[in-house]
Amino acid sequence: MAGIPDSQEIIDQTLGCLIHNFCNYDSMDLGSRVRFYRSLRGLSVRDVSQRSGCSRSFLAEVEANSVSPSIRSLEKICEALDISVAAVLRDEPFFSAPMIMPLNWNSSTEAFRWETARLFYVFPDAEHAPFAAVLYQVDAFGETPWRQAAESSQKLAVVVKGRIHFENNTGVFPLETGQMILVNTFSPFRWANREKQPAEVLSVGMRPFQLYEEVERQARWREIFKKDVQGKSKERRQRRTVKGDKR
């Protein structure tokens, strides 16, 4: 019988091909995206020129972002690259090569601490990473509080240690080490450990990381600030009305 993979092996497999140079992530301009997809296809500028009918000098200028191709020219280039125009125009992170992240959860930055659970950043620069990756550590018989994203957010979670329950308004889902679950965290959810051993869950999503509690705190602060400003404005209007009546 095959043994149960350990935490590090599961995290290695999950994160292995996700990201490269995430701390220096920048959105690409059109020329860079054309060059990136050409390199992925293993094509030279001459190859694309022959396939598209565009001159090599024009393609070089496009990749250098010196000229903006017409829609028709871009369609020809995309046909040569065997990719849709929409994919080339879509601004998204790109990774030049797979890279396994160094794994040392003891030194990871703690994002949030609850009574019987903790949340850790996976990436050193989580704020600027192009997608979210966090690790939940839940004590024996512990649980996270109910949490909810501010907007629709798909997450893929994998249990890397122990057994744990994922709970939301659709039900309770018991999971074992190595099992994965795809969820939308726009619906209130929590992780609950009903076992005598601690559990760990790696959660990955394509949206940049935002701590739900921080978003909620900012929203409350904006609401308080808004009420405060509105209250002061109302006070000033009332004082002006009183002064007008006295005259």
CATH arch. level architecture of one domain: Sandwich
Query: Segments where pLDDT lies below 50 for 5+ residues?
Result: 15-26
The helix-strand sequence is HHHHHHEEEEEEEEEH
Count of individual beta strands: 9
The backbone outline, from C-alpha atoms, is flat
What is the CATH class name of one domain? Mainly Beta
Strand content: 15-25%
Q: Count up the helices.
A: 7
Please, what is the average pLDDT?
76
Give the N-terminus to C-terminus distance in angstroms. Answer: 94 Å
What's the arrangement of strands in the largest beta sheet?
1-2-3-9-4-7
Q: Biggest β-sheet: count, sense, barrel?
A: 6 strands, antiparallel
Q: Tell me the name of the CATH homologous superfamily of one domain.
A: Jelly Rolls
Please name the CATH topology of one domain: Jelly Rolls
Overall radius of gyration: 26 Å
Helical percentage: 25-40%
Class by helix and strand content? alpha+beta
What can you tell me about this protein's structure?
- Helices cover 36% and strands 20% of the residues.
- The protein has 247 residues and is of the alpha+beta class.
- Among the domains are: 26-89, 434 Repressor (Amino-terminal Domain), CATH 1.10.260; 105-210, Sandwich (Jelly Rolls).
- The strands form two sheets. A six-stranded antiparallel sheet has the order 1-2-3-9-4-7, covered by helices on one side. Strands 6-5-8 form a three-stranded antiparallel sheet, with no helix packed on it.
- A hairpin with a 3-residue loop joins strand 1 and strand 2.
- The protein is flat and about 65 Å long.
